[in-house]
UniProtKB/TrEMBL annotation:
One of its GO terms (cellular component) is membrane. This is Probable polyol transporter 6. The chain crosses the membrane at residues 97-126, 132-154, 166-184, 190-212, 224-242, 254-277, 357-379, 394-417, 424-444, 456-484, 496-518, 524-546. The keyword Thylakoid does not apply. It is a multi-pass membrane protein. Residues 101-550 form the Major facilitator superfamily (MFS) profile domain. Keywords: Coiled coil, Membrane, Sugar transport, Symport, Transmembrane, Transmembrane helix, Transport. Residues 53-64 have a biased composition (Polar residues). Belongs to the major facilitator superfamily. Sugar transporter (TC 2.A.1.1) family. PROSITE patterns: MFS (PS50850), SUGAR_TRANSPORT_1 (PS00216), SUGAR_TRANSPORT_2 (PS00217). Pfam families: Sugar_tr.
Length: 579
């Protein structure tokens, strides 16, 4: 069996770990953290052997022909003759250091939100100033989403190589260049070039912010902290709407350039602020930098005991994952691990638990964008114009109402995500979206066949758009990022998340680039009824394929998917016995 170099850093391991022989599965990190009650307040397990040994003493040495279960290192918590220590049973509190790191990382998401919001209004002025067609507008809007696929797919490998923190800096710098190109664009091709560069930066940002926050956060507040990127996306959308409204009165050849170019300022602020953030403790452990990981965990935990528990669990998960990595990666130090072999493990030979994780992550990202939310936000002025609102100032003003609704409800969802769990809010949001989109579809259909366009029908469409956006912000909006960043095992997390978010960006681009064309063929009413049907299918998928992850550590979640596989195997065996 190949031994990853992480396990060969004996000086660090001797300082932190003693040997804890166990006959439990090496893929069950939860064995090191046993919940003492249903609220998941953890207590320390006593060491099984009071003598301090080297992790690679004669009786624990792993060789290529070894048949027995390896012994995993765990944190030394003192002499074994002491009774197990229990953490003080308190209600989960929000760690200020983890909150600060999450806020700084999530600020990067403002850039995507601002672009989505500002482009909905800027497109009205770009079309007239550059004299472009509807198809060119679709290409302009969708090109950022399609090109963000490049950034999202590359971000996983990049973050495994240079770390989570510097990947966030790279994302902000790339978007900065794109924003400057768009703001200074003299022609349509130049504008598209800026969209392509900005899209790559957005792709990096969408993957890395949720992953970083999930890896930094304690388990009991991870839902709230990991949903902050979606909060900032919605805040950015609202800022984009406000920018549209404030600048719409300026000359047509200047206003849209200012709208797009202003995104450079938050990009600069993000790039500078991120330099003060800590690195992800899980990435540090994967690189063998245990001292630094412990320091970060000490600051993001409420007590020293909690920090030791988290480090113990992370180190065990890293050991088990890296021990089973391909020997072809044979390196001489743990710092040489850069995520090699992950794509093969994800796509070519996934285990059944990994396959279930992939289905869940890709599925929730697919339905997030297949719901048409981004397209509705991008083209909301077109939708409202079709409904009977023609004044440009009024069109932009109505979008501000939608932005306020989205931002308000995503805050509500973030605050209650760790209390009610992922599944209830996700199912509530998807059911609400299906009903709202159906109402919007019927309202639009009525207006199509109505000559005088009554005010109540216009009001129904406006309320239905705001309602669909609000239910999206309760469910799919924040929970997609939370779920994608927490269900993959540590070694696969960055690149697995990048794959799922790559699907997200591809579907988003396709919907954005075809929304107006399809709507012309089947009308807006038909389009919204089709989206309502998609959300019904999505609700069924969420119910059957997405287990609850509330309150569980990242390492425990992997066991959750393994347990599902074991239950399925037991059911199959039971059926075979009955036959």
């Amino acid at each position: 069996m190949h031994i990853h170099p992480l396990l060969q850093t004996t000086n660090d391991l001797h300082r932190y770990f003693t040997v804890f022989p166990t006959q439990r599965s090496s893929l069950a990190p939860a064995t090191l953290m046993e919940p003492s009650n249903k609220d998941h307040h953890y207590h320390l397990l006593a060491a099984a052997d009071s003598e301090s040994k080297s992790p690679f003493s004669a009786d624990t040495q792993l060789t290529s022909d070894s048949k027995r279960q390896p012994t995993w290192p765990v944190l030394a918590t003192g002499a074994s003759d002491h009774p197990p220590q229990k953490l003080k049973a308190t209600q989960p509190s929000l760690n200020k250091y983890a909150l600060a790191g999450a806020l700084l990382a999530s600020t990067n998401s403002v850039l995507l939100g601002y672009d989505i919001g500002v482009m909905s209004g800027a497109a009205l002025f770009i079309r007239e100033d550059l004299n472009i067609s509807t198809t060119q507008v679709e290409i302009l809007v969708g090109s950022l989403n399609v090109c963000s696929l490049i950034g999202s797919l590359a971000s996983g490998k990049t973050s495994d190589w240079i770390g989570r923190r510097y990947t966030i800096v790279l994302a902000a710098a790339t978007f900065l260049i794109g924003a400057l190109l768009m703001g200074l664009a003299p022609s349509f091709p130049f504008l598209i070039a800026g969209r392509v560069v900005a899209g790559i930066g957005v792709g990096y940002s969408l993957m890395i912010a949720p992953v970083y926050v999930a890896e930094l956060s304690p388990a009991l507040t991870r839902g709230f902290l990991s949903s902050l990127p979606e909060v900032f996306i919605n805040g950015g959308i609202l800022l984009g709407y406000i920018s549209n409204y404030a600048l719409s009165g300026m000359p047509q050849n200047i206003n849209w350039r200012l709208m797009l170019g202003l995104a450079a300022f938050p990009a600069i602020a993000v790039a500078l602020a991120v330099l003060g953030m800590p690195e992800s403790p899980r990435w540090l452990v994967m690189k063998g930098r245990l001292d630094e990981a412990k320091q970060v965990l000490m600051r993001t935990s409420e007590t020293k005991e909690e920090a030791e528990l988290r480090l113990k669990e992370i180190a065990k998960a890293a050991s088990s994952l890296l021990i089973t990595s391909t020997p072809a990666a044979g390196t001489s130090s743990s710092s040489n691990w850069h995520g090699q072999g992950v794509w093969k493990e994800l796509l070519l030979r996934p285990t059944r638990p990994i396959r279930r994780i992939l289905i869940a992550a890709i599925g929730v990202n697919f339905f997030m964008q297949a719901s048409g939310n981004d397209a509705v936000v991008y083209y909301s002025p077109e939708v409202f114009r079709e409904a009977g609102i023609h004044n440009k100032k009024h069109l932009v003003g109505v979008t501000i109402l939608m932005g306020i609704a989205k931002t308000s409800f995503v805050l509500v969802s973030a605050l209650f995500l760790d209390r009610f769990g992922r599944r209830p809010l996700l199912l509530l949001g998807s059911i609400g979206m299906a009903i709202s989109l159906a109402a919007l579809g019927f309202g639009s259909k009525f207006l199509e066949f109505s000559g005088n366009k009554p005010d109540w029908a216009i009001g129904l469409c406006v309320v239905a758009v705001c309602s669909a956006a609000s239910f999206f912000s309760i469910g799919l909006g924040p929970i997609t990022w939370v779920y994608s960043s927490e269900i993959f095992p540590m070694r696969l997390r960055a690149q697995g998340s990048s794959l799922a978010i790559g699907v997200n960006r591809l579907v988003s681009g396709l919907v954005a680039m075809t929304f107006l064309s399809i709507s012309r063929e089947i009308t807006f009413g038909g389009m919204f009824l089709a989206l309502a049907g998609i959300m019904v299918v999505g609700t069924v998928f969420f119910y059957f394929f997405l287990p609850e992850t509330k309150g569980k550590s990242l390492e425990e979640i992997g066991v959750l998917f393994e347990d599902q596989v074991h239950e399925e195997e037991e059911e199959e065996n039971h059926k075979m016995l009955l036959c």
